[in-house]
Amino acid sequence: MAIHIRRVAVRFALLLAAAAIIPLIAFGIISVLSLQRGTHESIVAGNANVATRAAEEIRRFLVENAAILTALAADLQDTGLQRWQQDRIVKNYVLRFREFREISLFDEAGATVATSRIGRPQVAVPARTAVTLDGVALSPLRVDDDLLPTSIFAVHLRHLNQPAGWLVGEFSLEEMWRMVDRIRIGEHGYAMVIAPDGTLLAHGDPDKKALVAQAKNLRANPLLAAMRAGGGNVPVSREYRDDEGRTMLAVAAAIPQLGWDVVVEQPTSEAYASARQLQQQLVISISTALLAMVSAGYLFGRSFINPIVTLQRATHAVAAGELGTRVEIRRADELGELGASFNTMANRLAELQEDIKKKERHVMFGRMAAGLVHDLSHPIQNIGNSSRLLLRDDLDPESRDLFRKTIERELDTLKRFMDDLRNLVKPKPVERFAMDLNGSVADIVDSMRHEGERHGITVETEFAPGPLTIEGDRFALARVFRNLIVNAIQATAPGGRIGVVTARIADHVEVRVSDTGSGIPPDRLTAIFEDFVTTKSRGLGLGLAISKRIVEQLDGTIAVESEVGRGTSFTLQFPSRDDLSANAAAS
């Protein structure tokens, strides 16, 4: 009971908490979701701005240096300079613009015209170019012997709108690396530059610069796939796991003229750290408020429910028959009034119980008296009539013998009736001993067969082969079988049939007594084994109740099946004791 009350108190507390906290929880959930969405959008926007600015700086850096080579090409073509003059100009450019490691001038056939190097040029007219930047062809990036990135810039010279040669420069992209290195997002966020074919050109993470030398291809990166699908016009963001298993938030911005992509990558654990901290604080605040409200509701619920607990316990006590139970609820509210009403009800119930007991005693005494008068009047009247007739002198011997048997039969009925009453008040203990059930049943049937014939009823028997040995009380069981057969005779009309069958079923023996009588209504079938319950017009209804007690004392069972208008069948089962067969046979 206490567990149920605690559950009620908890539910009451939760109800109060729900009424007060649900709006707060809903606000908290909305706030957390808004915080997550706003933080994501803010971080993506910030990283996209960094990536866009980095892409613009890299583009400007390359455009400016490409413009330098274009300006040099303008100085060298259509000027009529001598070769030594052209050679001096390219050497001065290399000294002035340190990003160019070498600048060489070739004619249309590829022969060297002028070079900044002493000796043969190291560069040549590019066989293919990656992209074209403001008329300057850029070859794919490569890493030189010093593990520094370089690219070949080439400008096609023309004279009188006719091809006149190539101005080729080896351009160091080391400054681009430094630009990428300077881009930092938090503690662990870096930038990288990726070529159109997915080749890694630069990486700001010192631990991953070796990937550039290895020409690491990132074509499978989901961010690049999204960038290509979107046309590269606007920055694109994605979350994915890197090679180390970390979840990364990455934003890519394109360098349209080059086809390169600048990617800014940052671990989500760092990117969302402040938002998660704020989210945890919000959750802790809501949880603390919820716990406080639940605790307050629980305490309030206990004070509110304790009177209900008292009433519940008192109700159970009254239901168990303790009508002297009273409650003491000192409250000036509805619960106090309910307690007072309960006490009034208990007082009234006690009065009604005493009144009902008196009426039940009167009814019981009246019923028993009526039953006794009904059951005893007929035998006593028969005995009196037969006794008076026996005193007549003109009575022939045959009639005298008939009246004597009538007196004996009615006296036996009275004795059986007295035994029923005595067994009801003080049940007689049964004695167990080995016995053959077939023999006991046969003796009772033989003694009752004449009674059946007197009422025009045939008594048929069918016994199982061999002894059916049980542990029982021969005299007590004889009383049970006699009651069942007498009941069957009284319930069966003349011309009917009574069957008595014994059988062995597994480790039990069975006796079935059936008749073709009037049957028992279903609504009364379940109560026929109770005291003072009878379906006959006469009798106290003790026979079947006593029979059931005897059977159960011998570890047996008794069951009944009946159909109105077709008859009734009683089935008795007892544990079989084959090991006692010899003793039973001897007895």
Q: What does it look like?
A:
A hairpin with a 5-residue loop joins strand 5 and strand 6 (149-159). This protein has 587 residues and is an alpha+beta fold. The chain has helices spanning 2-76, 83-96, 174-181, 210-213, 222-229, 268-271, 273-319, 334-390, 397-425, 437-454, 474-491, 522-525, 543-553, 581-586; strands at residues 100-106, 112-115, 131-133, 136-138, 142-143, 149-159, 162-172, 184-185, 189-194, 200-203, 236-241, 247-255, 260-267, 433-436, 458-462, 469-472, 497-505, 508-515, 557-563, 567-575. The chain contains 14 helices and 20 strands. Helix 1 (2-76) runs antiparallel to helix 7 (273-319), helix 8 (334-390) packs antiparallel against helix 9 and helix 10 (437-454) runs parallel beside helix 11. Strands 1, 2, 3, 4, 5, 6 and 7 form a seven-stranded antiparallel sheet that branches. It folds into three domains: 1-319, PAS domain (Beta-Lactamase, 2-Layer Sandwich), CATH 3.30.450.20; 381-421; 429-586, 2-Layer Sandwich (Heat Shock Protein 90). The mean pLDDT is 78.
